[in-house]
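Would you mind giving me a polypeptide sequence along with per-residue structure tokens?
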Amino acid sequence: MFSSISWESYISTLAILLVIYYSFVLYLYYRKDIVQFLTTGRNNGENRLQNMHTDNTGAEEHAAADNYVDEVKALIHQAGYSRLSKDELITSLQQLLGSDRFEAVKTPVVKERINKIITYECRTNCSMHLDEEDLERVWVGM
């Protein structure tokens, strides 16, 4: 049965299957990058360098937000563990973000970043979805 299959045909078939498999995996994980590369062309690396230089303008704000991200994550994780309701969680976030320590997060860039973190952490740790109205309620006291 196996004598009719040559090593050459076995290796070539295996190579073709591996190329198909890894192409699928690369497409699955890097779909957005591939589409961006195909639509913007080959000077994508130059655009990334320009974007990095323009992104550095808010570097100080991001550094300030990093100090508070851990506290927000810990609060949401504890709320998920304690099974707080959505209103109780929003009240807790209002108290945390309304304190004097969070004075630096009042800029729109940092608020947006913290809103994304709050949304993600609530979805993963508390199994609840916060919409735009709920996020606005978090920042009401600010």
